[in-house]
Amino acid sequence: MSRSFTLAVASDHAAIPERFALIEHLRGEGHEVIDFGCKEGESVDYPDQAALVGNAVVEGKAERGVLICGTGLGICMAANKVDGIRAATVHDAFTAEMCRRHNDANVVCMGARVHAAVAIQRMVDVFLASPFDEGRHTGRVAKIMALESHDPVTS
Ligand code: RB5
């Protein structure tokens, strides 16, 4: 069990029931959830959903973000275009933990056509409970972020 977070959560049309189940689960655990949709019956473009969550995180409205599309791939690619976002598509508890420990991910992405709703909830729980390990990983994450400014760290 992690401390309570304020979370920005969104999905596209491929993951609506899974997002609803996840939000209920997260609120049950005491987290505050800002739900950016989409609504039932709606068809949306996953980059728009990624931008809503990514912007909420970089603007400080949410501490972390959760994105679900069909595969977890497109929505992650889009989220990583938002400056300040380190989004990771995770597949299991190991990748959910390691994206925090080594990469300091602030957004987690998953595919509802890949994973069952309960598996998604477990991966998000691990993501929220896992710390950044800092140490040798700090400089590597700084190099990721330097790519945004087109000013790569060379040493
Ligand atoms: C929508 O059909 C699908 O393309 C989307 O959910 C996602 O899987 C894209 O990466």
Any overview of this molecule?
This protein is α/β, with parallel strands linked by helices. The protein has a single domain (6-149), classed as Sugar-phosphate isomerase, RpiB/LacA/LacB (Ribose 5-phosphate Isomerase B, Chain: A), CATH 3.40.1400.10. Helices cover 42% and strands 15% of the residues. The protein has helices at 16-28, 46-58, 74-79, 93-101, 117-129, 136-146, and strands spanning 6-11, 32-35, 64-69, 87-89, 107-111. A five-stranded parallel β-sheet has the order 2-1-3-5-4, sandwiched between helices. Helix 1 links the parallel strand 1 (6-11) and strand 2 (32-35). The longest helix is centred in the N-terminal third of the chain and has 13 residues, at 16-28. The protein starts with 5 loop residues before the first strand and ends in a 9-residue tail after the last helix. The structure holds D-ribose. The site of D-ribose has 8 residues, from loops.
Structure at a glance:
With 155 residues, the chain is α/β, with parallel strands linked by helices.
Q: Structural class of the secondary elements?
A: alpha/beta
Number of strands: 5
- CA radius of gyration: 15 Å
Given as residue ranges, the uncertain stretches (5+ residues, pLDDT < 50) are none
Average pLDDT reading: 96
Bound chemical compounds: D-ribose
Architecture in CATH? 3-Layer(aba) Sandwich
Terminal CA distance = 38 Å
Order of helices and strands: EHEHEHEHEHH
Q: What is the CATH C-level name?
A: Alpha Beta
DSSP strand content: 15-25%
Biggest pleated-sheet summary: 5 strands, parallel
The tally of domains stands at 1
Major β-sheet strand ordering: 2-1-3-5-4
CATH topology: Ribose 5-phosphate Isomerase B, Chain: A
Please state the overall shape, judged from the principal axes of the Cα atoms.
Answer: globular
Tally the helices: 6
- Helix share of residues? 40-55%
CATH superfamily: Sugar-phosphate isomerase, RpiB/LacA/LacB
